[in-house]
Amino acid sequence: MSADTADLTKVDSAVSGLSSSPPQNAVKGHRRASSSAAGVYNINDLGLVPDRRWLWADSEAEKEGKELQIAKETQKLNWKLNTSPATLDEKDVLKKFLTNPPVKKIDLHFPLGLEVTARNLKGVTIKDALDAIYKQFKKKADDELELPVLAGFEWDKEESWTRLIVHQKKEGAPSGGKKKNKKANNDDDE
């Protein structure tokens, strides 16, 4: 019996022409391309190290010396942090990028220490930022929030290059106050 087994090898004689390792030039399947859009930056690629040197000299943004600019529309929203962003009247504002140049993710820092992250591989929009904030505050009642209305965002590159500071205020601007005055004036004229 030992003579019969000595002739046997690792591979059965029925498939003796095949090797046990895969071929070197195997064709791989289709690989999905990156999901991020062109012109959208990683926030870390835009940053400066403390001694003011660029972290990555390869990025287009550094070569051009781009800094973050925040959309001014965020200051006029008067949005309550514990209400859904879908309830805003200005739906077209939600589609705009939060920053210029657009970034894939950005941290939103509240003065009391809370930090939330807004992410979108195609560029963080105002809606993405509001959704991230709303996720933290949706279970809070109005009286639990000391400053319930979004006042806007601030980018302080000296403090942290990779995050925005969230500013809040006590109450939003009165909506429709002018209409009431016109109506009152019309009643007085009669």
Please give a structural write-up.
The protein has 190 residues and is of the alpha+beta class. 21% of the residues lie in helices and 14% in strands. The protein contains five helices and six strands. The strands form two sheets. It has a four-stranded mixed β-sheet, covered by helices on one side. Strand 3 (105-109) and strand 4 (115-119) form a beta hairpin. The longest helix is centred in the C-terminal third of the chain and has 13 residues, at 177-189. The radius of gyration is 29 Å and the shape is elongated. Residues 49-64 and 176-184 have low confidence and may be disordered.
- Percent of residues in β-strands: 5-15%
General form = elongated
Helical content stands at 10-25%
Number of helices: 5
Poorly predicted sequence stretches spanning 5 or more consecutive residues: 49-64, 176-184
Q: What is the radius of gyration computed over CA atoms, rounded to a whole number of angstroms?
A: 29 Å
Write the layout of secondary structure elements.
Elements lengths: L1 H5 L53 H5 L4 E2 L20 H4 L4 E2 L4 E5 L5 E5 L6 H12 L11 E6 L8 E7 L7 H13 L1
Parallel strand pairs: 3-6
Antiparallel strand pairs: 1-2, 3-4, 5-6
Q: Which properties best describe this structure?
A:
two-stranded antiparallel sheet; four-stranded mixed sheet; 5 helices; alpha+beta
Question: What's this entry about, in short?
Answer:
The chain has 190 residues and is an alpha+beta fold. Helices cover 21% and strands 14% of the residues.
